[in-house]
UniProtKB/TrEMBL annotation:
Keywords attached to this entry: Glycosidase, Hydrolase, Signal
Source organism of this protein record: Brachypodium distachyon (Purple false brome)
Lineage: Eukaryota, Viridiplantae, Streptophyta, Embryophyta, Tracheophyta
Pfam families: Glyco_hydro_17
Annotated signal peptide: 1-31
Name under which the protein is recorded: Glucan endo-1,3-beta-D-glucosidase
Length: 340
């Protein structure tokens, strides 16, 4: 009897430990999310979109603005959410704590209960590249964090960078921020709050800029190419890892080695331009999905990563390839075969 009781209590303690470990590392279970852009005239309804995420087992979503329909459809699903404060609202958020408070009240508070939306981060701005706009980012992050704290909401605040915010990216250990006067204070703030830095990482664009020196297989997670970083002796078998490790190097250079990285976008177009084929897109995205759970040479462990994007978006402007980053067509059929 005594023996049985002790076996039971040991099992019980082990179970408690396992549950505690699972609760402490939610990202370890699910490192892949998908960005849900809405610049299409023919996209499914929010509840159909969320249903598709669920049926494919996609653990998290990024959206580029607070969208009521999607927020309502996500409530109670457990799907993690990264939500942006759109760039056009940063001037107001940077200059006005009451604006930040109203934004939280309208867009976060109604969904932040335990049965609501599983917010992961709020990204203050996406790919803000002009220096005037960049001046707004840190004050806007602080006003937003203040408004969240005042409402008792514990969501971490960050910003999503375009990859060219990092320079000297090869070898990866040489990576530094392109504008330390902008990113130094942002990185220091993230270090103080424990939030990660979000960065959009596209080996596709690096490859199309320099197909002479970069091999397609290296850019698309195919075996056959290895590159050594002479600065630290690490060996790279794919361009994605090399790019991500240059971000870690930039954070070290800024004196903030403890700040984590989330890849807030990555993807490959299936049509519309150079190297944009369904087969290359499938190889890249399937490679990415299979890869990020293990992290990079510099930093092992799950790397939270968001594939861009869920759907082909026919109203995206710019290069023709921009319309063809989707994993799915607007009718919810797969753009090419992929598994999560
Ligand atoms: C954000 O900016 C857009 C474009 O200027 C504007 O229409 C919208 O009302 C702003 N949002 C808020 C909450 O003020």
């Amino acid at each position: 009897m005594a023996k049985q009781a002790s076996v039971a209590s040991v099992l019980g303690a082990a179970l408690v430990l396992i549950v505690a470990l699972l609760a402490a590392f939610p990202a370890a279970v699910h490192s892949i999310g998908v960005c849900n852009g809405v610049l299409g005239s023919n996209l499914p309804t929010p509840s159909d979109v969320v249903q598709l995420y669920k049926s494919k087992g996609i653990a998290s979503m990024r959206i580029y603005a607070p969208e009521t329909g999607i927020l309502r459809a996500l409530a109670g699903t457990g799907i993690g959410l990264v939500m942006d404060v759109p760039n056009e609202n940063l001037t107001a958020m940077a200059s006005s704590p009451p604006f930040a408070a109203a934004w939280v009240k309208a867009n976060v508070q109604p969904y932040s209960s335990s049965s609501g939306v599983s917010f992961r981060y709020i990204a203050v701005g996406n790919e803000v590249v002009d220096s005037e706009g960049q001046k707004n980012i840190l004050p806007a992050m602080k006003n937003l964090a203040g408004a969240l704290a005042a409402s008792g909401i514990g969501i971490k605040v960050s910003t999503a960078l375009r990859f060219d915010a990092i320079t000297n990216t090869f070898p990866p250990s040489n990576g530094v921020f392109s504008d330390p006067s902008f990113m130094g204070p942002v990185a220091a703030y993230l270090a103080s709050t424990g939030a990660p830095l979000l960065v959009n990482v596209y080996p596709y664009f690096a490859y199309v800029d320099n197909p002479r020196d970069i091999q397609l297989g290296y850019a698309t997670f195919q075996p056959g190419t290895t590159v050594r970083d002479d600065g630290n002796g690490l060996v790279y078998t794919n361009l994605f890892d090399a790019m991500v490790d240059s971000i870690y190097a930039a954070l070290e250079d800024a004196g903030t080695p403890g700040v984590g990285v989330v890849v807030s976008e990555s993807g490959w177009p299936s049509a519309g331009g150079f190297a944009a084929t369904a087969e290359n897109a499938r190889r890249y995205n399937q490679g990415l999905i299979g890869h990020v759970g293990g992290g990079t040479p510099k930093k092992a462990g799950p790397l939270e990563t968001y594939v861009f994007a869920m759907f082909n978006e026919n109203q995206k402007t710019g290069l023709e390839t921009e319309k063809h980053f989707g994993l799915f067509n607007p009718d919810k059929s797969p753009a090419y075969s992929i598994s999560f």
